[in-house]
Amino acid sequence: MLRFLLNRLGQSVVLLLIVTVITFFLINLAPGGPASTMRMEASPEERQAMIEKLGLDQPIYVRYIDWITHAVQGDLGISFTSSEPVIQRISERLPYTIELTVFTIVISVIVGILLGVLSAIKRGKAQDHIINFMSVIGLSVPAFWLGLMLILLFSITLGWLPSSGVGSRGADFDLWGWISHLILPVLILTTTVLPNIVRFTRSSMLEVISQNYIRTVRAKGAKESIVLYVHALRNALIPVVTIIGVLIPRLLSGAVITEAIFGWTGIGTLIIEAARGRDYPLVMGVTVMITIVVVVCNLFVDLVYSRIDPRVKNV
Amino acid sequence: MEASTQTNVTSGVAVKAKKRKNTLLNRLRQNKVAYFSLWFLIVLHVVVFIGPFIWTANPEELQEVGALASWSLQHPFGTDDLGRDVFARMLHGGRVTLLVGLAAMLFSLLIGTFVGACAGFFGKVVESIFMRITEAMMAIPNFFFVLVALTVLGTSPIMVIVVIALSSWMEIARVVYGETLKWKEYEFVEAANASGAKSMRILTRYIIPQIIPSIIVSGTLTIAAAILTESAISYLGLGIQPPTPTWGNMLQNSQQYIWTAPVLGILPGAAITIAVLAYNFLGDGLRDALDPRFVKK
């Protein structure tokens, strides 16, 4: 178990390194550094001063080594655009994204498994077709467009829900204000992952139902409900754990768009601001932070999976 | 003697392939939604690619009727906020959007199949390197990658295609990898191996043909995803830039005019949804048609 854990941890570190190298070289090798986004009237001297101040005159590998040595000590540099530490800007925004994604994943998993199992049990019947149809629609509607339409309906026409923002936090926190700001973003984000969970649960359940041991249980004369819920469901849910790991990056990608639509001040809107402002340290910081989140989630999923499925070899 | 056996074998393969193709289409026909989607997509592509030759209004030119004109015979969907013909923009925008989807899919199929097949077949170092890279790419939420890459590399259509493809081949690689692992254990592959066939030949002649059905399914679903990604980045203003219309960037300014000209917001979004929906239905239908377990009758 310990060996497995260390092995996976080592792999995660390698993965993080690959991601940082790709991102770092990508953003640094391209034309149009931060100096090019300075005011038009900046003199060549001012420009040069800025380049030197930011260390952009160094060769790229020197900058990468410099960056990575600081990064492992928890120093992700200073944001170009706001002159605040990158780590501070990220930690201001990350909780909002976590809030959004945690709500989404909990709702998606519960609803997704229920619908997936229902769909598999009622295979070929009306319920199955409706659920299938709805999941394909969920996968196909562009989140930003659905968001616009929902804002149009619930915020503008009906006036029930706020169209943007995160609600008031801190001292004048009120529960309904908080929930009402969450409903639409969570709903939109749910549409990006729910269909996958439903379909995965359904096919996993169908796969298990077609196994020999299920036939044996049926042949023994067990009641259908016992066959399904006692013997099939338990094994069908095991692979569903893995899909959750796969869906985390997808969820975070979806969060970028969702946050953009609803003006949700999370990590998604931060990366858009950083990318537009060519704020290199911030872009790097956000990418690293997101990768860490993904890696930790995957590690956790692997651990859970190897615990609940004895067939998985710990290599 | 050897030559004649060779021809027999190849013609046998050809006959088998033809038979399979027929049954595939027949099986697909049983799934009405998927079959309808196939036809719908054919019609949609014809309309979007041939339409601009018939409807010759310039999508980037300002019309005499002015901005936000409502529908008329000259302008069936009216004009947009700058006074450009919306119908022409829908046709040209569809061309760009669908082409970007198709091109990105082809490119990512190429990368994904190469990576997955090599990793699965050769194992060892190739497998660890390729699959670690695949995992690393899957671990970066691809929308972050796309945003960063496009801001840095620019937003020409070619760049958009390349970046979308580079961010979406991993799923295909994993599918191909899994299938290659499965097929390489089969007796016919062992037989080919024993008879002295070279690895590249085994891979391209024996294994990849078995995987083609899965590749087709993945490809169809990849187009759908690519269209969605393109429209999302265009909506954020980081994709293909106006005045070149795409269904995604047509939505960029539509939010402001949602009351005065709802068509501007509804049309491109609906077009994206329908096209993606049809590709997804077709992909699902193909998957079911190709999967012996899921075929009824």
TrEMBL record, chain A:
A GO-annotated cellular component: plasma membrane
Membrane topology: Multi-pass membrane protein
Keywords tagged on the record: Cell membrane, Membrane, Transmembrane, Transmembrane helix, Transport
Keyword Cell membrane: yes
Pfam families: BPD_transp_1, BPD_transp_1_N
Subcellular location: Cell membrane
Any one GO BP annotation for this protein: transmembrane transport
TM annotation in the entry: 12-30, 100-121, 133-158, 178-198, 226-248, 254-275, 282-301
Principal location class: membrane
Span of domain ABC transmembrane type-1: 94-301
Cited Gene3D superfamilies: MetI-like
Family: Belongs to the binding-protein-dependent transport system permease family.
PANTHER family: DIPEPTIDE TRANSPORT SYSTEM PERMEASE PROTEIN DPPB-RELATED
Protein name: ABC transporter permease
From TrEMBL, chain B:
Keyword field: Cell membrane, Membrane, Transmembrane, Transmembrane helix, Transport
Keyword Transmembrane helix: yes
Gene Ontology CC terms, in alphabetical order: plasma membrane
Example GO BP: transmembrane transport
Residue stretches spanning the membrane: 33-55, 98-122, 143-166, 211-236, 257-282
Subcellular location: Cell membrane
Domain of life: Bacteria
Keyword Disulfide bond: no
UniProt-listed InterPro entries: BP-dependent_transpt_permease, MetI-like, MetI-like_sf, OppC_N
Domain ABC transmembrane type-1: 94-283
PROSITE patterns according to UniProt: ABC_TM1
Record's bilayer topology term: Multi-pass membrane protein
Family assignment from sequence similarity: Belongs to the binding-protein-dependent transport system permease family.
Name of the protein this chain belongs to: ABC transporter permease
Species this protein is from: Cytobacillus praedii
